[in-house]
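Sample A.
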Amino acid sequence: MIKDNTIAPLLEADERPVKPALIRGWKMLCPQCGTGPMMDGFLKVRDTCEVCGEELHHQRADDGPAYVTILISGHILAPLMLIVFETYRPDPLLLVVGFSIAFVAMALYMLPRIKGAFVGLQWAKRMHGFVKTKSDANAAAE
């Protein structure tokens, strides 16, 4: 809760809607401007956006994207594996190899996008270092 009434309008005027930030993050774009690339490599998040200069080094995605990727992939592929096995009765080795390849491909596709969405969510919710401090607000007001 903001106690200083002089900076409250400044902080409230800078709204950060969650849905556009998540979509931009899924597209691996800067959550603020939506045009600059967020990633510098496969999973490395850039320190700052090349277009708008937004600092992205504050993000703390850690193991969250990997956990969510495994959770989603498992919930999609496990029932599919059961259906394929019960319907077609393929050789178990063929089933394991085929679904292992499918899992790795799905995980490699989703992991950077989910990480981008995590960074977008953190930016929108002002988590970690993405929050505007009182000293920043006072400097902008002067």
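Sample B, a different protein:
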Amino acid sequence: MSEPKNLLVSYAEEGDLLAIGNGAQAKGGGYSVTRNSFFTGFYAEKDRRQCVGFDLLDAALMLTLYLNGEASQGVVCDGELSVSYCDETDTLILVSNREPVAHNQDVADGLTAHCNELGRAVGFTLKNAGQLLLPYLQGRKAKTGAVS
């Protein structure tokens, strides 16, 4: 299994906030995937829908069950998000139940955004998810690291 390149993972225990992306500055602001802003996609420029990454609040609370292999599918955020995790391939898929996916967009090596017909990210697929995220989420301590 090769390590992803150009992928930045940050985690802050306060707010249980996970940020994953390509490290580019989000000049275009964000688009909340869920009504309560638990899951947000960020963009390179306001008028250009090039996704640069995602923020996820309550990340350990939402994802640890799946990344530990205790569940493979479910819904979180009051049914707004579907979660799928394949232990064999270590792949996590998190996608909105509110908006259909129209196309995909590569964000970084191993991170793909799923976008609606307007080009706004409504979910993502992350390869090597457990390997990358569990060290952050299980410790519940503020950490930042780049995978290169």
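Observation for Sample B: DSSP finds two helices and twelve strands in the chain.
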